[in-house]
Write a structure and sequence with these properties.
9 helices; two-stranded parallel sheet; Rossmann fold
Length: 251
């Protein structure tokens, strides 16, 4: 996958960071977006460069409609820094967590989560279509909770279910350009998502591990490896699919 360029939203930490670093090992340059932590994003750029790839960090707030609708111009400028005019891979990864009972969820929470997890995926992908090379690949990040149910995830999982449906339509409609679109659905993964909820709650972590066939929760590198493989030519014939990366959770 050498000489390819990826745009990874939410690439300054967690799964997004792990994806950027794994792709760098495969020779892929990256544009990583961050919401607020420029320092963290800059550190990711340094780590990518240490692996022999190139990277640019740009600010993007996927909760802000104007931010992602105007992102094409930002991406174009970042591509120029990498000596290119187009890119090859888009990983829609940016997101936030919310664990809130259905009965207590507010409209404001609903709107914020919708903007971040569905609307941004739809319109950011749409906005970047002129810049993605024919034969490129879009990967949308979903969640295992679209298949198994955890109380408190009604909004999050419902919006990710919408993303999974959108993925199929994108794959169908972008087929003439040979742009593949797939979705990767992580199970319980130990990152700083929701302020490191799994990492900082040993009892919850153990409860998750009991229901995972491989006996542990996932790590960000586990998900990054799946995305890296999916973007390779070896997986060219995989299109419009949901790939769950959960170690066999709740089988």
């Amino acid at each position: 996958m050498s000489h390819k360029i990826a745009i990874i939203t939410g690439g300054s930490r967690g799964i997004g960071k792990a994806i950027a670093l794994r792709l760098a090992k495969s020779g892929v340059d990256s544009i990583v977006t961050y919401k607020s932590s420029q320092a963290e994003a800059g550190e990711v750029v340094k780590q990518i460069e240490a692996l022999g790839a190139r990277a640019v960090a740009v600010q993007l707030d996927v909760a802000n409609r104007d931010s992602y609708l105007n992102f094409a111009a930002v991406a174009q400028a970042a591509l120029e820094k990498l000596g290119a005019t187009k890119f090859d891979f888009l990983v829609n990864n940016a997101g936030i967590g919310l664990s809130q009972p259905f009965a207590e969820t507010t409209e404001a929470q609903f709107d914020e989560m919708t903007n971040i997890h569905f609307k941004s995926v739809f319109f950011l992908s749409q906005t970047l279509l002129p810049l993605i090379n024919d034969g490129g690949h879009i990967v949308n990040i979903s969640t295992g909770t679209t298949r198994f149910v955890l109380p408190g995830y009604s909004i999050y999982a419902s919006l990710k279910t919408a993303v999974e449906g959108l993925t199929k339509y994108m794959a169908k409609e972008l087929g003439p350009r040979r742009i593949r679109v797939n979705v990767v659905a992580p199970g319980a993964t130990e990152t700083d998502f929701r302020d490191g909820f799994i990492r900082n709650n040993p009892q919850f972590k153990k409860m998750m591990e009991v229901n995972i066939a491989l006996g542990r929760v996932g790590q960000a590198d586990d998900i990054a490896g799946v995305v890296n493989s999916l973007l390779s030519d070896d997986c060219y014939w995989v299109n419009g699919q949901r790939i769950e990366a959960s170690g066999g959770q709740v089988l």
